[in-house]
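User: Structure please.
Assistant: Input sequence and predicted structure:
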Amino acid sequence: MITALILIPIVIAALFLLTPEGFGLVIIAISGLAGWEWAQFIGWHSQGKRIATGVGFAALLLLMQLSISDFYHLIDIPMIKNGLWAGLVWWIAAILLVISYPNSANLWKNSVILKLLFGILTLIPFYCGMMVLRTLDYSINAYTGAWWLLYVMLLVWAADSGAYAFGRLMGKHKMAPKVSPGKTLEGLVGGLITAGIVSWLFTHFAPISNVPNHLLLISGVVVVVSVFGDLVESMFKRVSGIKDSSHLIPGHGGILDRIDSLTAAIPVFAGLVFLVSSGFQL
């Protein structure tokens, strides 16, 4: 709880106070640490290989950011748009891998290339989604994108809390027992209910003027995908034989343990809104 009380204000400050460039650098740093942790999933346990992996992820994202000349129209940049499409495709595939686990693990558990590719498909769309949402309508109102990013985060946090509460109270039907025995279908329903309440409250009380079409439907899909984001990391940890991705955050495990749901929720929300739906009606 102490760690959470420290981290939450820092996250909110980064959302609302940093410039797009500065915010991007923070996401790159977080992704670099996540890449350092992902190296264990690949099978690279030596500190040298883990550091090289983290630096490699950060360097790749930094090169992407340095190539951006216009931060106010990111969705029009092919690199960013393709990153979001890749994220949508990857999370469909990742959900199928979880559903068919442990049989699906035979397809990738011995392949360094595939496990590295899975990391790339997790972290690059995450960066693209974070940046597209943060810079939404930035030239008109610098805080619009920050509010929408906060919305997705609140959805994920509410769904996680609701799933935990409903699962403890009435959970009977396991959702993916071979990956994460604690998750139940009753918990998923509870998470959807609490996320729906958050969605209603946000659209009525947050200082926003443009709401995407089909927001409730998109939000429901995002909540379900965020649950699978958690399950995907659990699957990789189970195959790798590790409990926490690291011990960087006291009481919380590693970076991936904290952002696993967001790595799915952020690019899927951005992809559904900008690529599949009709945007933010701007």
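The two ends are 39 Å apart (CA to CA).
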